[in-house]
Design brief:
This protein has about 140 residues and is mainly alpha-helical. It has four helices and four strands, in the order H-H-E-E-H-E-E-H. The strands form two sheets. It has a two-stranded antiparallel ribbon. A hairpin with a 2-residue loop joins strand 3 and strand 4. Helix 2 crosses helix 3. The two termini are about 30 Å apart.
Length: about 140
Amino acid sequence: QSKKITFNAFYGSIPDRYKNLEIFKKLQEYLIELEETYSKFGYLNDSYTGRPIHIEGDNPSISKLLNYTIQSLEASRNVGVLEKLLKYLNSKKSNLILYTYDSFLIDFSKEDGKIALEDIGIILSENNKYPVKFKYGKSLDL
């Protein structure tokens, strides 16, 4: 239920009975800031890289502005993480074989040892800023 309420607040409207909650007050302020920034400059900035985010179409909705902002941040962050991970794995027997949205599939070689898993965790979490979970198995079925 909370996920549904939050999703609707982000991409629809904040239900009246929740508008007094601090998280939704801050969300509303942020949405207004996005809209004002876009109206003033005609673009937004990626908060990870600082690069401009150009949005297709005239007068995009607040939901579209938010969606582009979130997707840009995620993509920019993940490109940086992928670059670090691939550089690290270059000297290892383990290989990154698939990346999708928020998952990295690594064909891990035991020869790289436990320290490699720890290092990979540090890279993916950006020095423990974000949670990382590992799952392992002999196949994709785990």
